[in-house]
Each structure stands twice: as structure tokens, then as C-alpha cells.
Amino acid sequence: MVTELLLMQLAHDQKKRQTHDSPHFPCSAYFTNWHVHEIEGVPWHWHDELEFLIVKEGSVQVFWGNQEHFLQEGDGFFCNSRCLHQIRIGKCEHCSTNSMVFDANLISGGPGTVYDEKYIHPLVSSTAFLGTALFSKVREQQQVLAHIQAAHDSCREEQVGYEYDVRYHLSRALLAIFMENRECLSSGAADGQMGRVRDMLAYVHENYASPITVAELSRAANICERECQRCFRNILRQSPMEYVQQYRIQIAGKLLLETKKSVLETGLAAGFSNPSHFCKIFRKYMGCSPTAFRKRNGSFND
């Protein structure tokens, strides 16, 4: 089964809230259709699972670690376990993507296997290798992209035995990623700043409905305010309070689509005490008013 991904479901422990249709087959396939001034991507997040993405139409801008790339139609992205990343619509009016999110144990068979010890554990435990862009014009990466798309197609068609096909194609894609990047898997230092950012995002995700200050975020990571600002700039390329606002708008968008709360109630629930300020910030990030956003995405009307 392939599921449409609209707004990211974020857990209070700052990760993407990931559930699979079957715990015995921990793999999910998604498709997206993003439009300018409607839903323009997913915010900064991470998950324990591995992820492959392919751009099917338009372009996207992907951010991870200290890297960013524009990906065109046919290009892709591999995201390693626990890597903070963000995906936004590129320089186009509309884009669509296919993605596969899966537990590494699906490929390795679990701890102690030769697959886990030689290939999967060195990859997912690396703090030096967070992810990589995949370009359709690079011959060595074309086969990787083909395997990712084949796995996605198998999830959509669900023919008898499709689980074997999905595991095979993801295994081949993952092995190619490992082989191409194995020399850099252990060449970096521990992800100190990224770990501190995760701690601070956890605080935001647990307390977004209340006032939040830089001082509070700093205490959550046991660092000074200057280091807090530096971590956000280096990893997320934005200030702490810009992230807080962006996350609150993400929550507001989810409430507008999934509940019958009024715009006023939505703003208050998302952490905005001033209704006019909420509408101003919502328009800044989403390109339209909260009411227009709700109507464009076919949900409840106020």
C-alpha cells in the first residue's frame, strides 16, 4: 500500500511518529503532491528508520547536516538513521515525490547477522555519514534509483510475494550506498551539535503551546544562549525562534486539516496568544490565510 503524506506527524520526542501497517514488515511507502502556497514540504525532523526519496515531478530542496541540494525530476535522496533533514518544494509551482521509510532490521535480519555486522550497523551507526543526494545523470546512481522506484512500485501493486521484491530492491540500493560511501562512514567526529539540537527540538515539541525563550532552549541542552544560536544556525540554518514559529505553524496546519477548531482556537492551541499575529505568521509561511489553507486542502470549514 502507498500512502499520501500531507503534513508530517511529529511525536513529542522530536521524531517523526512512524508506524507501519504491519510490525512484521516495517516498511512504508509514501507519495506526496506539494503546491506553492499550500503544502510546501516537511519541516526539520528525523526518525530511526532509513529513508529513500525520488522526485517524480518538479523539484525539491533537501537539507541535511551542513548540506543542501536541489533535486530535479528523477533525482533522489538517501537519509540515514536519526539524521535531521528538511524537504521543501523547489523552484516550481508543484512537485511530487515517492519515498520509502523502513527499519534497517528489514534488510539486516536483526543484530548478529553477517548482513548487520558487515554492512547495516556500520552504516546506520555512522555519525560521519548522514545521507547523500542521488542524481539520475550519474551512471553509478541510476541503478540505485531504479531499485528504489521498483520497491515503491511493488508496494503499490501488492502482488503475492511483493515483500520479497521490496526487500530485495531496498537491499540492493542500500548495498550500493554502503559501497560508495564506506570510506567515510567512520571518518567524522561525534555529532555533538546535532545532538544538542535534537534536545532543543524535543523541548519545542513538548512545550510549543506555551511561551518559549532562547534561555529555556539553552537550558534544555545544557549550553549557553550563544551556543544555542550557533547550533541552530549551523544545523537548521535558522534562528531558534524562527524554528519555534515554523513548528507552531506546522501544528496549526495539522489542526486546521484534522479538527473543527476555529481559526482562533487553532492559533491558541498552536501557541499563538494573539489572533492577528497568528494569521500574519501563518500567511508568511503558508502564503495564505488559515481559512484559505483549510478550504484549499478540502477540510473542515469555519
Q: What radius of gyration results from the CA coordinates? A: 20 Å
Shape: globular
**Strand-pairing-aware structural class:** alpha+beta
Give the biggest beta sheet.
6 strands, mixed
Strand content: 15-25%
Q: What order do the SSEs take from the amino end to the carboxyl end, as H and E? A: EEEEEEEEEHHEHHHHHHHHH
Identify low-pLDDT runs: 10-14
Q: Main sheet: which strands, in order across?
A: 1-2-9-4-7-10
Q: Kindly state the percentage of residues in helix.
A: 40-55%
The helix tally amounts to: 11
Give the CA-CA distance, first to last residue: 33 Å
Mean of all residue-level pLDDT scores = 89
Please provide the count of β strands. 10
Characterise the protein shown here.
The chain is α+β, with helices and mostly antiparallel strands. It is built from eleven helices and ten strands. Helix 3 (139-157) packs antiparallel against helix 4 and helix 5 crosses helix 6. The strands form two sheets. Strands 1-2-9-4-7-10 form a six-stranded mixed β-sheet, with helices on one face. Strands 3-8-5-6 form a four-stranded antiparallel β-sheet.
